[in-house]
Design goal:
Layout (H helix, E strand, L loop, with lengths): L2 E2 L69 H5 L3 H6 L2 E2 L8 H4 L2 E2 L11 E2 L3 E2 L8 E2 L2 E2 L12 E7 L1 E7 L3 E11 L8 H14 L7 E3 L4 E4 L6 E7 L8 E14 H9 L7 H18 L1 E3 L2 E3 L5 E4 L2 E14 L2 E14 L4 H8 L5 H7 L1 H8 L3 E4 L8 E10 L4 E5 L5 E5 H9 L9 E5 L6 E3 L4 E3 L3 E2 L7 H11 L3 H13 L9 H4 L2 E3 L4 E7 L5 E2 L5 E2 L20 E2 L2 E5 L11 H14 L3 E2 L4 E4 L8 H12 L8 E6 L5 H13 L3 E5 H4 L4 H14 L6 E2 L12 E9 L10 E8 L8 E8 L9 H16 L5 E7 L5 H22 L4 E8 L6 E3 L15 E3 L10 E5 L11 E8 L5 H11 L14 H18 L26
Parallel strand pairs: 32-34, 33-35, 33-36, 36-37, 39-42, 42-43
Antiparallel strand pairs: 1-9, 2-6, 3-4, 5-7, 8-29, 8-44, 9-19, 9-28, 10-12, 10-14, 11-12, 13-14, 15-16, 16-18, 17-18, 18-19, 19-27, 20-21, 20-26, 21-24, 22-23, 24-25, 29-45, 30-31, 30-38, 39-40, 40-41, 43-47, 45-46, 46-47
Helix pairs in contact: 14-18, 15-16, 16-22, 19-20
Length: about 950
């Protein structure tokens, strides 16, 4: 028997949890520059014998951009540029246009270095859904990782735990369907697992040799009987069993040798069905012993009390990852707030202010009903596994409820609820003078006295609804220092309740190494920055921060027409001191090089006006009329955070065309130099100024060609929101080579729709803005996409969003720039810890600029982890960058350095940020669109015009 646990030397044995010691023959790491399975072995064409250059004439028809048909040579006839040829669409039937046949063609690209250096088109791998004939292929890693630009190497530990498996093992994948047998109704999801367990127990089938997803899929280590079978099941001891039909059908046999072939690079398509099955196996033990929320699991006990019947539970989120070292379990610490399991009466005492049973029926019915509605409970007057949802309260008190009870012969008799509970269950109802709970469906509820109801464990309480102290406690529990988080992760991996506990892994012949993966990281040097007066800044070595001090901004704008609305004079607390704040702010702006020509127009107002749209609009319009010319910026000072902030932003940014800057009075009154500098940075950027710029040219873009950076993101409603629209945002740079000023577009779309439906049109609008402001079109484009996950969403970005972008640019602007497409994944579980004190900063976190592109990365695709910021609180979290398309021929070093350098250009701070700015700005704009929607009354319906930015500010950085 061979086990696969690939390390630096290929197969290896190792002790771990879940199985015995494995061993096997050695094999060197696979070279990924061999022939693609899609390549035609006999093909070695060079597309007309002359390569493809960026000087090609514009394509005449959009349809000609599609490379298809036998021979695949339509691209040359159309005069394609490098960008359209390299990865636009590749036909499976095309000879000489796929696999190695493409990657060996030397081309002179827009990304070529000065001096005529040519680059090879990077070899591709198929996207997940590549069944069609015209699918873009994902780019492969250009080499074995970067090595040239780092100042030093550091030894790190990653929260990846190697997983070995028996390559001869076969997992049986079954489809299971459970239906009522001869009676109408829908089976609730929690019952499916219980019915399945009942059937397995009745037939003596091995439950612990199977993994069930709770719906349609069973993965089994042994063969199961197939067909349709009858099973009787009751969720309560005193309930009458009902009959169900369970159908089990074999879908496929998953040979783990195929996973080994993928990990070794022998095949390029990801065996997602195998990974799905193995991932489900690792979830079975925590499914049974912990609280399950989405893909995370949390301890039932111990928990931390947050007050008001709310607790915080520690837990983890984990997943299986195919990496260059083999299969890995990636697990990270997590914390979530829940409602505490407690009797309903006790819950009301801590949840409802001044609650008492005596006042309940007459004074508190509405508060109690609001507190309890839609919560889940179980009952204590009888033994049952059923969970019920609270639909409401009975109109009558318990002593006044009566109903008909029928005997076996169908004869009815009226009885009271009090008598029924005594005769049926031997339970006396203590609280007879309060309503009962109505449980289940509203049209046919069960009426149960509150004292026999207990809140079910594991009901999530959204952190947005926590009070200030509880939120602070939860945040402290989440932001663990590196050494504490590292210990917590290892503890969870070794726990009997965790993914490695129980018999499941051993039964599927899997084994987990309980030690974190040791990886070598590289620290990229920070760039030098330039400010005004030719000042050059070298940043702090450890934190990579810089101090403005007495230095000037690169381009401080002139302010002639500005106003201040002070919303604080009528407040009891936190009134602004304008005599102190205004001169202090002007003085700080002037020292930074912002030219304040005139004093602001000052006007006072009340905080309540922020929530009165018409009155607020009238006030701002009257202020605008006081100036000859456009009001440049409106500074709004508030005494506290208020929902009226959303109204102000929507009104000014969509209706009035006024750029605003808000601040809180208690901070403004301190006239703190750092705070005033922060305000000044934001003000200058919103006015179109430039705060700091890179003093070096970005890698791969050293020549004079124009470059644009694009960021795209979609903001989705909160998890419990079932109807609000998702908000798509796209931002793009509008200056070069500074590349630090952005314009934005925002668009609503269908609820939870991840694909940006109008991506092409939004981008074209930004491309036109760039062309107008620079009198030149961007020839090279780098798109950063946020918010998408592996699987079909990568395919969606490549084959839908990108194609939409290509089509729109060609049809409306008649040209075809080269594109690099990078996905930034910030919600990954990967964490990096210094192995020793020398490998990290003074607080135990990794250094800014730390990059890892070996062992824990994809086996063949172009990806890496980059931590660009200094982690002052908690544990630093690296961003995972996945390159889907590269038409500029980046090396790993070049792209990593480019992204890291861009992180120093974020306009509103003097330190590198954790996420590449185009994505960070897109996130801000998408959130702004969500804020617009939240100004609407419940149930209101609006069109796209509600979100449309005013022409006066749509090309400014109003959103920072």
């Amino acid at each position: 028997m061979e086990r696969y646990a690939r390390g630096a030397g290929g197969y290896r044995g190792g002790k771990g949890r879940g199985g015995g010691t494995g061993s096997g023959r050695g094999r060197h790491q696979h070279d990924y520059h061999g022939q693609s399975p899609r390549a035609n072995p006999s093909s070695n064409s060079s597309i007309g014998g002359s390569g493809v250059t960026t000087n090609a004439s514009p394509v005449k028809k959009w349809s000609e951009l599609v490379i298809s048909g036998p021979g695949g040579n339509s691209g040359q006839a159309a005069g394609l540029t490098f960008g359209s040829f390299n990865q636009l669409t590749i036909s499976e039937q095309g000879e000489g246009l796929s696999g190695r046949g493409i990657s060996d063609v030397p081309v002179q690209s827009a990304g070529s270095q000065p001096g005529g250096r040519s680059s090879k088109i990077t070899e591709q791998v198929p996207s997940e859904s590549s069944e069609g004939n015209d699918k873009i292929l994902r780019v492969k890693r250009p080499e074995n990782g970067g090595c040239q630009l780092a100042t030093r190497s550091v030894k790190l530990l990653a929260n990846h735990f190697p997983v070995s498996f028996n390559i001869d093992h076969v997992i049986q994948h079954y489809h299971v369907e459970i239906k009522p047998d001869g009676w109408p109704g829908k089976i609730k999801k929690p019952y499916l697992s219980m019915i399945r367990e009942t059937y397995f127990n009745d037939q003596n089938l091995p439950l612990e040799m199977t993994a069930y997803d709770g719906e349609k899929n069973i993965f089994s280590a042994v063969q199961l009987p197939t067909g349709t079978f009858s099973v009787d099941f009751s969720a309560s001891e005193d309930g009458r069993p009902r009959s169900y039909m369970i159908t089990i059908e074999l879908v496929s046999e998953l040979k783990l040798s195929k996973l080994k072939d993928y990990l070794m690079g022998d095949v390029l398509s990801v065996p997602r069905d195998i990974l799905q099955g193995m991932d489900l196996v690792m979830k079975q033990n925590p499914f049974r012993k912990m609280i399950s929320v989405g893909r995370s699991f949390y301890q039932i006990d111990p928990q931390t009390d947050l007050g008001y019947g709310i607790v915080a539970a520690k837990g983890f989120r984990h997943s299986l990852k195919p990496t260059s070292q083999g299969l890995s379990l990636c697990l990270d610490h997590s914390v979530m707030s829940f409602r505490r399991r407690m009797p309903v009466i006790e819950f009301l005492q801590v949840q409802v202010e001044n609650f008492s049973v005596e006042k309940f029926a007459t004074e508190m019915r509405e508060e109690v009903e609001n507190a309890l509605r839609d919560l889940k409970v179980t009952v204590t007057h009888r033994r049952t596994k059923l969970k019920y949802t609270i639909a409401g309260l009975t109109r009558e008190n318990a002593r006044d409820i009566s109903f008909e009870v029928k005997d076996e012969e169908g004869h009815g008799e009226i009885t009271t609820l009090v008598d029924y509970f005594m005769e049926k269950y031997g339970k006396e109802i203590k609280f007879k003078n309060i309503p009962c709970l109505e449980l289940g469906a509203k049209d046919k509820p069960n009426k149960v006295p509150m004292e026999f109801c207990v809140l079910v464990v594991g009901q999530r309480f959204h952190k947005e609804d926590l009070d200030k102290e509880a939120a602070k406690t939860l945040k402290t529990m989440s932001l663990l220092p590196p050494f504490v988080r590292r210990g917590s992760i290892c503890e969870m991996v070794q726990s009997d309740d965790g993914p490695c506990g129980g018999p499941f892994l051993q039964n599927f012949d899997m084994q987990v190494d309980l030690n974190m993966t040791a990886v070598e990281g590289r620290v990229i040097p920070p760039p030098t920055l330039k400010l005004g007066r030719q000042d050059v800044i070298t940043v702090d070595r450890e934190k990579c921060q810089w101090n403005l001090g007495d230095k000037c901004l690169v381009d401080g704008k002139t302010v002639e027409r500005w106003a201040i609305i002070d919303f604080t004079p009528h407040e009891k607390y936190n009134k602004l001191n304008p005599e102190k704040f205004i001169p202090g702010f002007i003085d700080r702006c002037v020292k930074l090089g912002i030219k304040i020509k005139n004093d602001p127009y000052y006007e006072s107002a009340r905080m309540i006006e922020l929530n009165k749209v018409n009155k607020l609009q009238q006030r701002i319009e009257s202020i605008k009329e006081r100036f000859e010319g456009q009001l440049q910026i409106l500074l709004c000072v508030m005494s506290r955070m208020d929902d009226g902030y959303k109204t102000l932003k929507w009104l000014c940014e969509t209706k009035l065309g006024v750029v605003t800057q808000c601040c809180l009075s208690f901070r403004a009154n301190k006239v703190n130099n750092q705070y005033l500098s922060h305000l000044a940075l934001k003000l200058n950027a919103k006015l179109g100024g430039s705060n700091a710029e890179l003093n070096v040219k970005l890698p791969r873009f050293e020549d004079e060609s124009h470059v644009m950076f694009v960021g795209a993101d979609v903001n989705h409603p909160k998890s419990h929101d079932r109807s609000s629209p998702s908000i798509a945002a796209v931002v793009a740079t509008v200056n070069w080579p500074g590349a630090n000023r952005y314009a934005a577009r925002v668009q609503p779309q269908a609820h939870r729709e991840e694909r940006i439906l109008k991506f092409g049109d939004m981008c074209v609008d930004l491309f036109c803005t760039y062309a107008r402001m620079n009198e030149a079109k961007p020839q090279r484009v780098v798109v950063f996409r946020d918010g998408v996950s592996e699987g079909g969403q990568f395919d969606m970005v490549l084959n839908q969003e990108l194609m939409d972008l290509r089509r729109a640019i060609f049809e409306k602007m008649n040209y075809n720039p080269t594109i690099t497409l990078v996905v930034a994944q910030k919600r990954r579980q990967a964490r990096l810890f210094p192995e020793n004190r020398d490998s990290g900063s003074s607080n135990g976190n990794i250094f800014p600029g730390t990059v890892v592109d070996q062992k824990i990365v994809n086996p063949s695709e172009f990806d890496f982890y980059l931590c660009s910021h200094y982690g002052s609180i908690g544990t630093s979290k690296p961003i995972h960058y996945r390159v889907l398309l590269d038409e500029h021929g980046f090396t790993s070093d070049q792209l990593q350095k480019l992204i890291y350098d861009l992180c120093f250009t974020f306009a509103r701070c003097t330190k590198p940020v954790s996420l590449v700015p185009p994505v960070l700005y897109a996130d801000l704009v998408a959130y702004r669109g969500q804020m617009y929607y939240e100004t609407l009354p419940p149930g209101a319906s609006v069109g796209e015009s509600f979100y449309r930015l005013h022409d006066e500010l749509k090309d400014t950085m109003f959103f920072i």
